[in-house]
Amino acid sequence: MGWTILRHLGAWLLIGWPAWVLAADPLDSPSWEDLRKRYFAGQTVVFDEAVQVNAPVSAEDPLNVPIGVDASGLAGVQEVRVLADLNPIVEILSFQPGRAQPRLGFRVKLQQSTPVRAAARTADGVWHMGGTWVNTTGGGCTLPSTGSASADWQRRLNEVSGRIWHNAAAGPGQRVRIRIIHPMDTGLAAGIPAFFIQDLLVADASGHALMHIQGHEPVSENPLFTLDLPEGQTNLAKVRVTGRDNNGNRIDAWVTP
Amino acid sequence: MKTRLAIVTHLLFWTLILILGLPSAWSAEFDYQLQPKAVAPDTWVLQGRLEDFSFANGGNIVNTAFITTADGVVVIDSGPSLRYGQQLLAAIRKVSAAPIARVLITHHHPDHFLGNQAFPPASIAALPGTIQDINREGKAFAENMYRLTGDWMAGTEAMTPAAPLAPGTLEIGGHRLELLALAGHTGTDLGVFDRTTGVLFGGDLVFYQRAPTTPHARIPAWLTSLNHLAALPFQVLVPGHGPVTRDGAPLRQTRDYLLWLDQTMRDGAAAGLDMTEMLARPLPPAFRDLAVQPEEYRRSVAHLFPAAEQAVLEPAGARR
Q: N- or C-end of chain A: fewer Cβ atoms within 10 A?
């Protein structure tokens, strides 16, 4: 603790000004100060280019905006939170990387153009934040899911499909992609209550967590997650996916290569 | 004192500029500067810009055309707005005083039919699938065009073609038009082949020097349609977007691009790439230099990649 304070003091001396005074939001968001109070009260947040959010500058489909969060430039990431400032539901998801890299690909529903930001908490409790603006025609959050209009999802709810890769195109380590059939209704479309996956654990065959994901309403229908394992990890034979949605429906499946 | 004089002089000068300058600026506003070019006997094409929709171009990114016949004028597509339709009609009137016999709408995308209001309602015709698509999506398309191009759209409303077209031969004023019911760029695409002049109007099945758009594309059907068009004995080819040619180069370029796009989606999905990684991929030189790249490629990733992903994920399966 004392060391942390010393290090912060050192940083202040080097820069000549406390970090929190310097730290104007690089995304110039109208709601950042509110978000800081709501989600990071009493905690240290630094803007750090080691946390990358990859998203299209202009999103073609507001119901499926691809987002890639990458905090692998930081050591010892405990947790990553992803927020969309101007979305009616700000929280998109959180994850705690276990044996997987602190990196996750997924898609979201956006209601309007907004900053999308990711904050990675390191072992010292500091949140390192990066982000990007996404422009979109919007409307993604107040539309009913296609699943809510079909009988098919009831039969296939929480059905998992996926695959495990090990090739150069996907990255130096193994990659896991998992898709779950779920309407992911936001509760903002008239007459359709919120219905979404809240909890997802991806583990290896011996039960070690690769990643723990807490989902919120804005994650796109039939969520598709991309996880990467560290370089050199090539022995992943199968993956177990367990979890539940906010109505208590369980998810439990094995994904093989 | 000198300063005050200078200020007064300045004020007078700028007031004069404003008074003299504004009316000409007003009259120049919302003018698409449409210039019909003769491409064959009786046949005129108005080529749009090789761009995406913007306030600067007012949505004029599309090719429209007309054929003057003894029984009136046949118009092919009415453009992106009421203003465009009105200015298209004015451009036609510089060439021909004949009545509008038919307005043929090639498909339901907004740049091809939102000028309908400028033409006699009964003359506007499309294949039944296009009529259904305009009924379903036309209003949302028009709203989106207001967002993209602003006041260029003033007064524009989606107007559904009144007359359903049957594929086959349409004899009109000495021109023998073959109406081809095709598909692939959208669910229903109309090709028009004028057997009398040898001009083939490909609609948006054919792009040239501008990247094809794919929001409603089904690539296998599109490729079949291109083969169908390539088999016709045309002399002049009018793409939906891009310059008119006297050879089949636009058909080949569109086909090659679609084949590459389809393969790229499959390869990316098979390699396990995430959508953000697909978006970041560099384009090969042959397609990188087309107009509106890499934007159209990136849009196509949003349209086409999810199905390719699903195809590689589902067979792998997962056991409960």
A: N
pLDDT tens string A191-216: 999 999 999 999 999 999 999 999 99
Spatial CA neighbour of B108 closest among B74, B150, B80 = B80
CATH at residue B136: 3.60.15.10
Q: Give the residue with greater pLDDT, B17 vs A27.
A: A27
Q: How far apart are CA B48 and CA B278, in angstroms?
A: 30
DSSP, collapsed to helix, strand or coil, labels residue B295 as helix
Q: Residue B147: its chain A contacts at CB < 8 A?
A: 137
| B24 pLDDT above the threshold of 60 | no
Beta strand spans in A60-189 (E) = 65-70, 77-84, 91-97, 103-108, 114-122, 127-136, 160-165, 175-180
pLDDT score recorded for residue A256: 83
A60 and B320 within 8 Å at the Cβ level: the answer is no
For B13, the 3-state DSSP assignment is: helix
3-state secondary structure of A169: coil
Residue pair A77/A102 in contact by the 8 Å Cβ criterion: yes
**Residue B266 forms contact with A (CB below 8 Å):** no
ipTM over 0.90: no
State the pLDDT at residue A65: 97
Residues 6+ apart with CB under 8 A from B224: B184
Its domain, for residue B78, covers: 37-247
Cβ neighbours for B182, distance < 8 A, ≥ 6 positions apart: B189, B190, B191, B205, B225, B228, B229
Q: Tens digits of per-residue pLDDT, B151-204? A: 999 999 999 999 999 999 999 999 999 999 999 999 999 999 999 999 999 999
- Would you call B280 an interface residue with chain A, using a CB distance cutoff of 8 Å? yes
| Total count of domains within chain B | 1
Residue B31 belongs to a domain: no
- Residue A116, min C-alpha distance to chain B (Å): 14
Mean pLDDT of chain B: 92
Q: CATH for A45-255?
A: 2.60.40.2470
Chain A interface, mutation test: which of B52, B146, B265, B276, most A Cβ atoms within 10 Å? B276
Residue of A nearest to B320 (CA): A253
